[in-house]
Amino acid sequence: MPNQPSPLLERLVNVPVIPVLEYHSVDDALHVSEALVAGGLPLLEITLRTPVALEAIQAVAKALPQAVVGAGTVLTVEQLHAVRDAGAQFAVSPGLTQKLADGAQGAGITLLPGVATASEAMAALESGFTFLKFFPAEAAGGVPMLKSLYGPLAQLKFCPTGGIDIVKAQHYLALPNVVCVGGSWVVPKDAVAAKDWGRIRKLAEEAARLCKG
Ligand code: 3PG
Fold it and tell me: Which residue in 8, 87, 170, 195 has the most C-beta neighbors within 10 A?
């Protein structure tokens, strides 16, 4: 398969951060997503880690047309189909299998697959993916690892995710092969519990102001 630029990349021009979200209620999902989008982060990764995840994807996609709703923790082809049908415009997986690579083609949804090593990145490239999630970013070598991959694999672009905060994000975004970072720090659990949507909006605004290198 020829390597095509990811349509997701085009949506990320001025977006430095994709919030990684674990929603426990549709009501929280709507409020948090609204705060994130209002704060300047329109790309959202709603992970399939809770029973309400699919319903949340559907509700947010419907209520916030200005958001680009994606699904995270997608592990199977069946989930790819389910999240597409729920209204997700992209899917994120922690790793990549051949089944998932083939399934993404058939499902007609953009997949951002996770890799953590040079061999995994090469396998993803062979399957046609040039925009990859680097996961788990901090545990898998962080900024030095991505700097090292840039030498032999400069054609790849990354969204590092895993263990990143606002300070670390700046260091990743300064790299030429990093387009954006993913992270859950913009939605602290205690802010959701307190229904403090204003705090989440402020964290989103702070993240949206991060500059790309
Ligand atoms: C994940 O999929 O869990 C993401 O990597 C989020 O990681 P974080 O909670 O460390 O930002």
Answer: 8
Decide if 10 is inside a domain: no
- Give the CATH number for residue 79: 3.20.20.70
The residue range of the domain holding 156 is 15-207
Query: Residue 51: CB partners within 8 Å, gap ≥ 6?
Result: none
On whether residue 8 sits in a domain, the answer given is: no
Predicted confidence at residue 5, as pLDDT, reads 59
**Ligand 1 pocket: which of 184, 186, 189 to mutate (most atoms <8 Å of CB)?**
184
| Closest residue to atom 1 of ligand 1, CA basis | 162
Residue with tokens 């949804």: 109
pTM over 0.85: yes
Among protein residues, the one whose CA lies closest to atom 8 of ligand 1: 162
212 annotated active-site: no
What is residue 1's predicted lDDT score, i.e. its pLDDT?
Answer: 47
Average pLDDT by consecutive 10-residue portion of the chain (213 residues)? 65 91 98 98 98 98 96 98 96 97 91 98 96 98 98 97 98 97 98 98 98 77
- β-pair partners for 134: 115, 160
> In the prediction, which pLDDT does 36 show?
98
Q: How many domains does the chain have?
A: 1
